[in-house]
């Protein structure tokens, strides 16, 4: 019953079944045989000559290859840790045993992570380690005062 329903004004008109023979695959036109490996392709029917041989652009002449291979090569720039990251780690190590002083290290660590997000400097591992020490210190001092 639900399959026969249609909105008012859009009643379905029964149609006779169609033949699917018009959807049958059509044969491909004959373009000739595929070229066999090792045999050149014949020129186009318009008679255009084959394209000229082009030298490989990635091969250097021998004298330039010797010069290119003689140098030290590419050296990547040295990775530099952010001074703020180093400061955060040093303060976390120094202030680990000072009650509640690591709250400042937590603030400095999060500020440093925010600055390192858009920077090419290193030191994210240092900051994560310092934050771990600072949070551990805060939890330890809180547990000590509560007991």
Give the key terms.
147 residues; 4 helices; flat; mainly alpha
Structure description:
By secondary structure, the chain is mainly α. The protein has a domain at 83-146. The chain is built from four helices and no strands. It has helices at residues 62-70, 83-94, 102-117, 124-146. Helix 2 (83-94) runs antiparallel to helix 3 (102-117) and helix 3 (102-117) runs antiparallel to helix 4 (124-146). The longest helix has 23 residues, at 124-146. The radius of gyration is 38 Å and the shape is flat. The model has no long low-confidence stretch (mean pLDDT 79).
List the helices and strands and how they pair.
Elements: H1 62-70, H2 83-94, H3 102-117, H4 124-146
Helix pairs in contact: 2-3, 2-4, 3-4
- How would you describe the oligomerization state of the chains in this entry? single chain
Q: End-to-end span in angstroms?
A: 74 Å
The helical percent reads 40-55%
Q: What is the radius of gyration?
A: 38 Å
Which class best fits the helix and strand makeup? mainly alpha
Q: SSE string, helix = H, strand = E?
A: HHHH
The largest β sheet comes out as:
none
- Could you report the average pLDDT, rounded to the nearest whole number? 79
Enumerate the spans where pLDDT stays under 50 for 5 or more consecutive residues. Answer: none
Note the beta-strand portion.
under 5%
Global morphology: flat
Contiguous helical run count: 4
Number of strands: 0
């Amino acid at each position: 019953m639900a399959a026969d329903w249609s909105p008012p004004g859009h009643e379905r008109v029964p149609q006779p079944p169609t033949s699917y023979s018009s959807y049958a695959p059509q044969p491909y036109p004959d373009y000739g045989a595929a070229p066999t490996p090792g045999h050149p392709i014949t020129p186009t029917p318009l008679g255009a000559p084959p394209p000229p041989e082009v030298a490989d652009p990635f091969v250097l002449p021998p004298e330039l290859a010797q010069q290119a291979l003689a140098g030290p090569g590419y050296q990547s720039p040295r990775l530099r840790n952010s001074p703020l990251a180093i400061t955060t780690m040093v303060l976390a190590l120094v202030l680990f045993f000072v009650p509640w002083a690591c709250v400042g290290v937590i603030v400095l660590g999060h500020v440093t992570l925010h600055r390192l997000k858009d920077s090419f400097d290193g030191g994210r591992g240092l900051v994560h380690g310092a934050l771990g020490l600072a949070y551990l210190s805060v939890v330890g001092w809180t547990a000590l005062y509560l007991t």
